[in-house]
Amino acid sequence: MNGAESLLQTLVDAGVKVCFANPGTSEMHLVSAIGRTEAMRPVLCLFEGVVSGAADGYARMTDKPALTLLHLGSGFSNSMANQHNAKRAHVPLVNMVGDHATYHLKYDAPLTSDVPGHANLVSDFVRVSESADDLARAGAEAVQASLRGAGRVATFIAPANHAWEESSQAASPLPGQGLEPVSTATLKEIAEALGNGKRTALFLGGRALREAGLFAAGRIAAAAGARLLCEVFPARLQRGVGRVMVQRLPYFAESAMEALEEVEQLILVGAAVPVSFFAYPGKPGWLAPEGCEVLTLATVDQDGTAALEAVADRIGAAAPPDVVEAGTDIPAPSGSLTPVAIGQSLARSLPDNAIVVDEANTCGMGIFPATGRAAPHDWLMLTGGAIGDGLPMALGASIACPDRKVVALQADGSAMYTIQALWSMVREQTDVVVVIMNNRSYAILNVELARVGAGQPTPKTLSMLDLSHPDLDFVSLAQGMGVKAGRASTAEEFEALFAEAIAARGPCLIEAVVDQQLP
Ligand SMILES: Cc1ncc(C[n+]2csc(CCOP(=O)(O)OP(=O)(O)O)c2C)c(N)n1
């Protein structure tokens, strides 16, 4: 066996089954080893941002790491924005990055760069293999590191000669630590706080936003009169019929402060303290009201669900929580194609257990509330604010869950960062319905321009936020990558196209020419 083959054996033994890849010459032995292993599925992505975003989507749906294969420092840096999103989603992700042969580095050949330096910027764990024999061990350690807490970004670097030189054996998989338990003292403290008469909200995030966590939170809410709020941009929120509804904190700081206005006691469960996304001149960034006590039941790396269940038991929360009831009366939308109309069509047609990837940005603000009574589904959002994660995430989520329908709600500007994910969706025979919100604008930046008080915009200023001249034709872009596509300009057209897309299998794209009122 060579080093690459030992490594692959170790990764497969550790349960890693999918590799999102964009390789180069220094990774050819790794590519070759993957090609000889039945147990590893390679997925070619035509840009490294698709590689990392797909790994993010895969991990959100499986809680297991996908492997990425990236080419040296340049390949890694192309992947970085979606590595950042994955890090903010607290998912496990293992990067396998090639480098020049160790003895070639001294020549400073054109692609030479500080690969660990690139990796360090977004990775929680970085390890360079020391020999062909050590390569498999480096891989095992990276998988282990990725499985710490809720998940980490772990990177190991494979010098080309370590992949091709002889290696004596594969390394054994190493156990991941996983979510840590919450201490009994904390459970007691929170149970007592829930009885102190203060107006209380649970602020939920991370894995506490899955069905079981929300169910336990709902029991607490019913018994203690607490409100349920969650992160603005959850990594994965389970919602819809039969689930406990939670109020997402609004994006704009004023609205978020309003939502928190009455709260005297905020209990964090898998979420960080709510702060505004950006600073605005003269406005506060801390969103909780003055004097509001902030307590932590569980950090994102702790088992918030078990903690919520334990607290619910401690306070004697016997009654089942309120859950969303099936809505039989969602009317078919008509007239102009607003985000709310799109949400109504989704609420009518989403099949059970669908996965919705929401990078619809400003349009998402109208779609999300309109889909609360849809069939049970998972809702995945852009966690780190670095746009261009939506289409790759939909690809990765679909590969993770091939039997579930994936709907990618995708703003046009963000779509263009990683549009080539469409090609991989076709090649991998995924079942994804992509809905492009074509508002021909970086709409949110038009709003933010006014909010930050940057002065009167000139036509030149506005041209930097405008996506027309020329208009993007997403139907042609999709068709050019082998994706079936159609365009809707009215609510009726969208309703029909969406229902048809849901009934069919395989990737397709609907370009929704939206009629949008900006907030
Ligand atoms: C990687 C990255 N680059 C740039 C930005 C800045 N940015 C934030 S929103 C945005 C445009 C969003 O436009 P679009 O995706 O069309 O959504 P809309 O605002 O129109 O709803 C940009 C460029 C960012 N957040 N991330």
State the main characteristics.
about 525 residues; alpha/beta; seven-stranded mixed beta sheet; 21 helices; globular; binds thiamine diphosphate
Structure description:
The protein has 21 helices and 18 strands. The strands form three sheets. It has a seven-stranded mixed sheet, sandwiched between helices. Helix 3 packs across helix 15, helix 9 crosses helix 12 and helix 13 runs parallel beside helix 14. The chain is globular, with a radius of gyration of 24 Å. The chain starts with a helix and ends in a 6-residue tail after the last strand. 55% of the residues are buried. It binds thiamine diphosphate. The site of thiamine diphosphate (TPP) has 18 residues, from helix 16 and helix 18.
Summarize this, please?
This protein has 519 residues and is α/β, with parallel strands linked by helices.
| Ligand names | thiamine diphosphate
β-strand percent reads 15-25%
Average pLDDT works out at 97
How many strands? Answer: 18
Shape descriptor reads globular
Topology of this structure?
Blueprint: H1 3-13, E1 18-22, H2 28-35, E2 41-44, H3 48-62, E3 67-71, H4 72-78, H5 80-89, E4 93-99, H6 115-120, E5 125-128, H7 132-146, E6 153-159, H8 160-164, H9 184-193, E7 200-204, H10 211-224, E8 227-230, E9 237-239, E10 247-248, H11 253-260, E11 265-269, E12 293-298, H12 304-314, H13 339-349, E13 354-359, H14 364-370, E14 377-381, H15 390-400, E15 406-411, H16 412-415, H17 421-427, E16 432-438, H18 443-451, H19 459-463, H20 474-480, E17 484-488, H21 491-503, E18 508-513
Residues 81, 361-363, 385-388, 411-414, 439, 441-445 line the site of thiamine diphosphate.
